[in-house]
Predict the structure of Protein S100.
Amino acid sequence: MQLGAMQMLIKTFHKYSGKEGDKYTLSRSELKELLLEELGKTQAQTTVEKVMNDLDANNDGEVDFTEFIILMGALTVACNDFFLEQKREGGRS
Ligand SMILES: [Ca+2]
Ligand SMILES: [Ca+2]
C-alpha cells in the first residue's frame, strides 16, 4: 500500500474515532458516520450492520484500528465487485 493511502486511512479513522467514548476505537455510531460520509448513503445502510458484526473480532462493540484495516480491505473488494457489476450491466462508466 502507498504511504499516502495509509496516511489517509489513519486520518479518516481518527477523524471519527475521537467523537465519543474511546478516542482510538470506533463505536457503532462512529462507524456508521464514517461509512455514511465516506461511502454514501445507500452502501452504508446495508454495510454498517454487517460490518459491525463481521469485524468486531473481540466483540467489545468497538472497531479498533486493526479491525478497521480489515474493514477497508473488505470494502475495497466489495467496491471492486460493485463496479465490475456496474460495468457488466450498463457499460457506461
Ligand atoms: Ca470513539
Ligand atoms: Ca473490537
About this structure: The longest strand covers residues 25-27. Strands lie at 25-27, 62-64.
